[in-house]
Amino acid sequence: MPPSSSSRSVFEIGKYMASLLRIEPGISSSTRSPSVAPPKPLLIATPSAAGEFPILVFLHGYLLYNSFYSQFILHIASHGFIVVAPQLYTAAGPDTSEEIKAAAAITDWLADGLQSVLPEHVQPCLSKLGLAGHSRGGKAAFALALGLVTGGTSTSSSLKFSALMGIDPVDGMGKGKQTPPPVLTYVPRSFNLDMGVLVVGSGLGQVKRNPLFPPCAPKGVNHEDFFNECRPPAFYFVVKDYGHADMLDDDTKGIRGKATYCLCKNGKSREPMRRFVAGIVVAFMRAYLEGNAADLTAIGDGSQVPPVQLQTIDFLI
């Protein structure tokens, strides 16, 4: 079992070499049969070393490709975590119900299917499971954890999430314009979640890039509102001078990739924001999946310095 922490900063690449695996549904191989093929295409970031590692299921943002998060999930994997990032859809309307159900199906698949697609020397620790999402994926992650479209439970299997992370989550176009199913109730501390919660916000997310387009994380349905409904234990960080898409890869190609530069108000570069978000996710998962809160505490009290300026830090303990 790898150690739960190291002398390296969580904001730097960790001690493990990490690699990406692309897994398509319904494809058989010498190590995988159709019966355990995933329900959706997957991008998996995994440590290359032998060991047993906790798991993070990560849900992408609206109309984005999971590959746009490659540098982000590799950073997390380098600290000793297996990150499973499904491609939930390539086209979608306002209703998120189907992608929430797809995320539940992928989580159910982990028990029987994940080991079969990993290198033999890499073992997933199914009892240490986290859930995270960015933007609309953050909404979907909260909805899945709350059981909004899955009958009151997050999954139909015995697997249980122990940590939930919303990265600049967005519940629609604005207050009163939530996309179905609505997650926010606007009742403080109303989320009934039996796990620790991390909410990360971008300071520029609620700022319009130009008059023709709405902000990417509008006030009234963004990180502030999600945190207001969280119960303890919950942790909240807002990054100053960075935008909604600044955690993505440095170079996101294609029409959708180019749109991430022109639709959202952005910071000067993506690397600092990406390093911060990956690092705070690592620190949070070490605390709530591995029982070591040293990094999370150090970031909160300022003894571990992040690569960005934080405009808000709030802990509900």
UniProtKB/TrEMBL annotation:
One of its GO terms (cellular component) is cytosol. It is an enzyme of class 3 (hydrolase). Pfam families: Chlorophyllase. Pathway: Porphyrin-containing compound metabolism; chlorophyll degradation. Gene3D superfamilies: alpha/beta hydrolase (3.40.50.1820). Keywords: Chlorophyll catabolism, Cytoplasm, Hydrolase. This is chlorophyllase. It comes from Nelumbo nucifera (Sacred lotus). The gene is LOC104596611.
